[in-house]
Amino acid sequence: MKHFLTLRDLTEKEILKLVNKGLRIKKHPGFYSKKLKNKTMLMFFEKPSLRTRVSFEVAMNQMGGSALYYDLLGSPLTKGKETIEDTARVISRYCDLLTARVYEHEELEKLANNSDIPVINALSNSNHPCQAIGDLMTIKEKFKKLKGLTLAYYGDGDGNVTHSLIHACSKVGINIYVFCPKQFMPKESFIKDSIKFAKENNSKIVIENKPRKIDADIVYTDTWMSYHINPREKNKRVKIFKPYQVNKNILGNALFMHCLPAQRGYEVTSDVMDSSKSIIFDQAENRLHSAKSIILWCLKN
């Protein structure tokens, strides 16, 4: 049984297999249209979602399976009437796969440790591996390679997207520069792991607190206001992150990526979002094809 919780657990070979299978699925979707006949995936969501929820539901449907969405706000688990361990054991009797979008990563680990079916991390506060696989797929699609490319990330370094991105890039040989405020650095464990992975794959990870333009193939950013951030902190965060805004000067000749949703005029200017260098909607589309790849990998199909 394979869980998909963090890219730290996957080898370079496994990551590349997921990326390449996603590209094959995109080219030949009909071949996979009956792969999941009579298979059921349950979806636990504590956080809001557009791309993750829709892409996984459509992925199951297009491969002949079914997806059930379960809002945790009304569940016995959230109300404290049932343990997460018992919840996992019950779900294992009903479904073939569990996809969970939760706040605390430790909750995902408890689900996986007590489940007899694969568990997919659809986002936690510290990791977003599904996004990273879709991102690598998009980069491979545009550049026909991964190794040796350079990605520059600007903004919040202590976010789930950034954490999974530095794991992903360092494992497949992409050089990654993270420009972020000192108080929003990636967590030390992610930095330490990624430096080790980068050395193994002849790439580099550089983290700097002062933003600057570099000769990058891809420029990437994320919202300054993630779902779990208190809205009352907005003005404070905008002041801190403003120097890290991606504009045309920072972009240069690079392709632009954003995991979405985006707040135009904050982390990125509209002229970058709408430019010919922006590949954000190809990136969003590839969440569907990469979701199919992840599901099939977990179910060994």
Question: Any overview of this molecule?
Answer:
It is a single chain. This protein has 2 domains: 7-128 and 288-298, Aspartate/ornithine carbamoyltransferase (Rossmann fold, 3-Layer(aba) Sandwich), CATH 3.40.50; 131-283, Rossmann fold (3-Layer(aba) Sandwich), CATH 3.40.50. The protein is of the alpha/beta class. The mean pLDDT is 95. α1 (12-27) packs across α5 and α2 (51-62) crosses α11. The protein has helices at 12-27, 51-62, 84-94, 105-113, 129-143, 160-172, 188-200, 234-241, 248-251, 270-273, 280-298; strands at 40-45, 66-71, 97-101, 119-123, 150-154, 175-179, 205-208, 218-221, 255-258. The radius of gyration is 19 Å and the shape is globular.
Strand and helix map with partners:
Blueprint: H1 12-27, E1 40-45, H2 51-62, E2 66-71, H3 84-94, E3 97-101, H4 105-113, E4 119-123, H5 129-143, E5 150-154, H6 160-172, E6 175-179, H7 188-200, E7 205-208, E8 218-221, H8 234-241, H9 248-251, E9 255-258, H10 270-273, H11 280-298
Parallel strand pairs: 1-2, 1-3, 3-4, 5-6, 5-8, 6-7, 8-9
Helix pairs in contact: 1-5, 1-11, 2-11, 3-4, 5-6, 5-11, 6-7
